[in-house]
Write a structure and sequence with these properties.
Radius of gyration: 24 Å
Strand content: over 45%
Number of helices: 1
Helix content: under 10%
Distance between the termini: 38 Å
Largest sheet: 12 strands, mixed
Order of helices and strands: EEHEEEEEEEEEE
Length: 188
């Protein structure tokens, strides 16, 4: 039996603007292959084992979003904060045994999480029977995951920064031209 909670609460500033907070819980049970205590030794140098003691993982996700829109001025601004954390996440433990074979087996870990912040802005202008639109997106994120190698547990962290700009021109039903430039920097 699984309970998968979900909740959302929001407030509208106007017909097209508001803020909301949401929570979502979801689980991921281990697969049959991960649970079976059978050793897969088809490759004598890489042994795969199951783990009948695995527990289902459970992820808690939280999101706070805000949208501010002024359609009379063709302006839109939005932003948000997302956070998720997983308990009992299933990861592969990889180690070498006493005779040099690589052993791989799934295990449960804790401390894995993600956080991200984003903003988006757009502005539109009317040109006769055409319309010009300029928009931009920025985001920053951090991800932390547990890695188990040679019986040592460590936390791998990765960071990412993204910036994008898009330009769009449309004229009635004749043309729709869109250009987008995105730059991303990632570090682990």
């Amino acid at each position: 039996t699984n309970i998968l909670p979900r909740a959302t609460i929001g407030y509208r500033f106007s017909e097209m603007s508001g803020v909301n907070f949401s929570y979502l819980g979801r689980n991921a049970p281990p697969s049959i292959e991960q649970l079976q205590p059978v050793t897969d030794n088809r490759n004598p140098l890489y042994i795969r084992m199951g783990n009948p003691d695995l527990r289902p993982s459970f992820t808690h996700s939280y999101a706070l979003n805000i949208n501010l829109n002024k359609y009379s001025k063709q302006v839109s601004l939005s932003g948000g904060l997302n956070y998720s954390t997983t308990t009992n996440q299933i990861v592969q433990e990889i180690y070498f045994d006493s005779i040099g074979r690589q052993i791989s087996r799934p295990v449960n870990t804790n401390g894995n999480n993600n956080i991200s912040v984003f903003t988006y802005y757009s502005k539109g202008w009317k040109f006769g029977s055409g319309r010009f639109h300029l928009g931009g997106n920025s985001s920053v994120s951090r991800q932390a995951n547990t890695i188990i190698s040679n019986k040592l547990s460590t936390q791998a962290r990765s960071y990412s920064v993204l910036q994008s700009v898009n330009v769009q021109f449309e004229k009635e039903e004749l043309i729709d031209l869109q250009l987008r430039y995105t730059i991303r920097y990632s570090y682990s």
